[in-house]
C-alpha cells in the first residue's frame, strides 16, 4: 500500500518529470535520477515516483531555496532523496529544456507552425530558461519574461537591473554604485 506521501501528488506529471531526468542521467544503467528545483515541488514529485520504483534520486537546490522550502526538502529526504546545494545554472537549464522542446512539438502538431510569442515567469528562472532555450535562435518569435514589479530591492532585474556578471554568466542584475550585487527581495522560491 502506498504511503500518504506517495499518493499526494499527480503521478502522471511526476512520471514525466522522472522520465525526463532519467533520460538525461549519465548513470542511467544504475538508475540514478538527478534534477534541480527551486520551490521543491518537482523535487517532491520526482522523489515520490523514485520511491515508488526504487530509484536513487539526487536533487539540487540553491542554499536559500533549501532554507525557504524546508518542508519540501524534508519531504524529499523522507522519500529517500539526497538533497545537495545547486552549483550550476547550466544544469538548471538542461533539466528544463523539455519545456521548450514540448512546446515546439505541440505547436507544430496543433497549429502547423511555431508560436509568435512565448511568455514565461522569470521569478525562479528555470521555467523561462527551459522554454526560451529552444527558441532563442528563432528571430521571428518574441520571448517575454514576466517578473514581479515590486519596488526598492524587489527582484525586478529586467526593468530595474543593469548588465553584469554573476557566476560567470552575463545577466541583468541589481547592483550598487560599485557594481556589487544587491540581494533582491523576492517571494519566489527560486
From TrEMBL:
Keywords: Pyridoxal phosphate. One of its GO terms (cellular component) is cytoplasm. Its cofactor is pyridoxal 5'-phosphate. InterPro entries: Trp_synth_beta/beta-like (IPR023026), TrpB-like_PALP_sf (IPR036052). One of its GO terms (molecular function) is tryptophan synthase activity. PANTHER family: TRYPTOPHAN SYNTHASE, TRYPTOPHAN SYNTHASE-RELATED. This is Uncharacterized protein. It comes from Acer yangbiense. The lineage of its organism: Eukaryota, Viridiplantae, Streptophyta, Embryophyta, Tracheophyta.
Amino acid at each position: 500500500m502506498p504511503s500518504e506521501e506517495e499518493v499526494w501528488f499527480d503521478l502522471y506529471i511526476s512520471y514525466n518529470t522522472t522520465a525526463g531526468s532519467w533520460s538525461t542521467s549519465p548513470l542511467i544503467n544504475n538508475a540514478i535520477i538527478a534534477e534541480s528545483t527551486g520551490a521543491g515541488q518537482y523535487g517532491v514529485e520526482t522523489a515520490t515516483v523514485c520511491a515508488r520504483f526504487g530509484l536513487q534520486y539526487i536533487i539540487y537546490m540553491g542554499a536559500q531555496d533549501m532554507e525557504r522550502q524546508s518542508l519540501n526538502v524534508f519531504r524529499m529526504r523522507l522519500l529517500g532523496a539526497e538533497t545537495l546545494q545547486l552549483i550550476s545554472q547550466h544544469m538548471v537549464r538542461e533539466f528544463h529544456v523539455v519545456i521548450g522542446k514540448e512546446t515546439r512539438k505541440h505547436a507544430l502538431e496543433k497549429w502547423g507552425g511555431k508560436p509568435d510569442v512565448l511568455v514565461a515567469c522569470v521569478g525562479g528562472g528555470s521555467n523561462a530558461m527551459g522554454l526560451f532555450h529552444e527558441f532563442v535562435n528563432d528571430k521571428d518569435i518574441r520571448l517575454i519574461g514576466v517578473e514581479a514589479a515590486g519596488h526598492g530591492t524587489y527582484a525586478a532585474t529586467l526593468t530595474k537591473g543593469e548588465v553584469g556578471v554573476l557566476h560567470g554568466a552575463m545577466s541583468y542584475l541589481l547592483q550598487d554604485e560599485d557594481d556589487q550585487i544587491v540581494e533582491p527581495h523576492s517571494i519566489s522560491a527560486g
